[in-house]
Specification:
two-stranded parallel sheet; globular
């Protein structure tokens, strides 16, 4: 995820619906959301994010697991990654 200065953490209705559907139909014990944003950005989003962003944090108590991960900058047995290229 790349932070947007206007709304650094935003969940669209479509994304929320995909997560909601997976939770309702598959009934997993955990749903993992990996991100590379500062903790403060997520805390702000819980209280002042869009409707669907706030719902993401409140609809799945005990199921949604949010993990902070570093953005990869290399690939094993491959060249350094500077950006994603679509060709």
């Amino acid at each position: 995820m790349e932070p947007d200065p206007e709304d650094p953490f935003h969940i669209s209705f479509q994304s929320f619906l995909a997560i909601y559907s997976a939770a309702r139909i598959l009934k997993p014990s955990k749903i993992y959301l990996h991100h590379n944003l500062p903790f403060s950005v997520l805390e702000d989003a819980k209280h002042s994010g869009s409707k669907w962003t706030r719902k993401l944090f409140t609809t799945f108590p005990g199921v949604l697991e949010i993990n902070s991960v570093a953005m990869p900058n290399y690939a094993n047995a491959g060249p350094d990654l500077d950006l994603v290229r679509w060709e």
